[in-house]
Design a protein that fits this description.
heterodimer, A: about 200 residues, about 0% helix, globular, B: about 350 residues, alpha+beta, Cathepsin B, Chain A, 6-stranded antiparallel β-sheet, 9 helices, disordered N terminus, Butirosin biosynthesis protein H N-terminal domain-containing protein (chain B)
Chain lengths: ~200, ~350
């Protein structure tokens, strides 16, 4: 049965809603090297073969991906530059209004996992997080392609005809109350670079 | 090989846009040549499934139906060969690929380089596209070239005696289609693929000049709803253990893993990464097939069942990746693998239930 629209929404419901984005810096959780330079190829740990993406693949500082602002620290090919997800609990600033979590993330093979959202009231909801492969692949889950590298770094060489990918993924926060913490998936396939929380009023 | 229902007329081959690089001859003459590789690369698949897709497509079949209508989960054998194309069915590949189809898959093992070339040339003359086993270390277009030994598959689509050069097709990234000197392919096929520590998963077993013959023995069955229902029912029975493997065997595998790791260290974990590849790929192919069939037949519950099957394929990632990184702390990795394994098994159960539901309700 196809539903009928009886009457279009009134002007009031078409008013622009306010979107407040809160880009968060994840440096203290970084535990893995995803970006390397020609001199630091051997440090890459995006997968078990030691692949990594060239520094510069993902722009750094305050960057915008499809209308969402992220905070991306500059990698140096030595210090960790991403969070390999092993069930870390990430606390958010008090009173964070959240309707969406936006993540710059990639995966060692296509992945579908659970993230737990802890709200101010103590309520907890599991939500799906779906991430396509960092290896050549089309975005399987309708994600936004945040970056594609011009080459793939191997421990001993640079493969110029192979590119890697970072995705912008979103997760809904459906309760109408502040979000307090996020439990990342316990799945080492996932490599997280940045999170932005977005509230809509 | 099990063929369900009565044979249908030979399907009309689809027309694909894109560059044409292979002109089938022999029994495949008139079939639609393969187009650009990316159209048939699937990031869940290994070279085994990807190459089979290309060859079946060359034969005029719908490869997704041929590879995706059957869904099996073979028990893990004692000997898990360290190659990218490892399959638990061993030489009996037709028990997992082309189920319900008149398809023959036969490995050939020529004795020396001369015989290896002669067999490939004869197959090409007969209209067969041989899938040959190689060691990536010797192939200039592979990222592993002169770096890492790894057992891989590619397709040989032609041979030019004037230039002593094969035409080969390898759709796996970075993907290559073009000439390859005869002596280079011969070296790659004859390599010992030694386990020199350069690759933890796919080194240690030589190609031994093997090649796989894919022979379409008749028309592809017409995918009517009656045919599909029977196929799906048979799949569910098989996965529930009717053929002696399926989910009970997988559950037993995860149950035994911690003890195996305690006894052998990381080796069973590395094996788990390898054995998970065909299972992940084939759940993905089955999911794609169900999604396509659901669209064609207008059956929404079948689409939902396909999505449940797809979740199975994605859940293999946690199992495989936690196993792959297990060398540093094997016992902790075994714990993680078993945990992901339990999630995976629940996913299989949910998928089977969804498929059964879709059989009776639109």
């Amino acid at each position: 049965m196809t539903l009928q629209v009886i009457e279009p929404a009134g002007a009031r419901s078409r008013e622009a809603r306010e979107h407040i984005q809160l880009p968060l810096r994840l440096t203290e959780f970084f535990n893995n090297v995803a970006f390397t330079g020609p001199e630091t190829l051997g440090n890459g740990r995006l997968n078990v073969w030691g692949n990594s993406l060239p520094i510069g693949t993902l722009p750094t500082g305050r960057i915008r991906v499809s209308g969402v602002e992220f905070d991306v620290p500059a990698p140096d090919g030595v210090a960790p530059d991403n969070v390999r997800c092993t069930g870390q609990l990430v606390h958010l600033p008090d009173g964070t209004a959240a309707d969406w979590l936006h993540l710059l993330i990639t995966s060692e093979r296509r992945c579908e996992e659970t993230v737990h959202l802890h709200y101010a009231s103590g309520a907890v909801d599991p939500e799906w997080i779906r991430v396509s492969d960092f290896w050549p692949a089309t975005g399987h889950f309708g994600e936004v392609l945040a970056a594609r590298s011009a080459g793939m770094h191997y421990p001993h060489h640079i493969q110029r005809d192979l590119g890697g990918q970072v995705w912008s993924v979103r997760v809904p926060a459906v309760r109408r109350e502040p979000l307090r913490s996020v439990r990342l998936p316990d799945n080492a396939a996932l490599h997280l670079f940045a999170i932005t929380v977005e509230g809509v009023r | 090989m099990t063929v369900l229902g009565s044979p249908a007329p030979v399907p009309v081959a689809e027309v694909f846009d894109g560059p044409v690089s292979i002109t089938p001859t022999g029994p495949y003459a008139g079939a639609v040549p393969v187009t650009s590789s990316p159209a048939w690369y699937d990031d869940l698949c290994s070279c085994l499934q990807v190459d089979l897709v290309h060859v079946l497509r060359l034969g005029g079949w719908d490869p997704l139906q041929a590879l995706g209508s059957g869904w099996r989960l073979r028990a893990v054998p004692e000997d898990c060969e360290p190659v990218e194309f490892f399959h638990p069915a061993g030489d009996d590949l037709a028990s997992s690929f082309g189920v319900y189809h008149p398809l023959t898959l036969r490995w050939h093992r020529p004795a020396d380089d001369e015989e290896a070339h002669d067999q490939v040339a004869a197959a090409l003359a007969d209209g067969i596209v041989p899938i040959v086993s190689v060691d990536n270390y010797h192939l200039p277009f592979r990222p592993a070239y002169h770096d890492v030994h790894a057992g891989h598959l590619l397709m040989v689509t032609g041979y030019d005696p004037a230039t002593r050069s094969y035409q080969v097709l390898d759709p796996m990234p970075p993907a290559y289609r073009g000439p390859l000197p005869r002596d280079v392919l011969a070296r790659s096929r004859a390599s010992a693929n030694p386990d020199d520590g350069s690759d933890p998963f796919f080194a240690g077993s030589g190609p031994a000049r093997r090649w796989l013959e894919v022979r379409l023995e008749g028309p592809q069955p017409e995918p009517t709803w009656d045919w599909l229902r029977t196929a799906l029912r048979t799949n569910v029975e098989s996965l529930r253990g009717a053929e002696g493997d399926g989910l009970p065997a997988l559950a037993a595998y995860f149950d035994a893993l911690p003890r195996a790791v305690a006894a052998e260290g990381a080796a069973p974990l590395l094996r788990t990464y390898r054995i998970g590849w065909p299972a992940q790929a084939e759940a993905g192919l089955h999911a794609r097939f169900l999604a396509e069939a659901a669209r064609r037949l207008g059956r929404h519950r079948l689409a939902e069942a396909g999505r449940a099957v797809e979740l199975v394929s994605h859940s293999w990632t946690g199992v495989r990746i936690s196993a792959a990184h297990g060398e540093e702390n094997p016992e902790e990795a075994a714990r993680q693998v078993v945990e992901h394994g339990r999630t995976l098994l629940r996913g299989y159960e949910a998928a089977l239930y969804a498929v059964e539901t879709a059989l009776d309700r639109p």
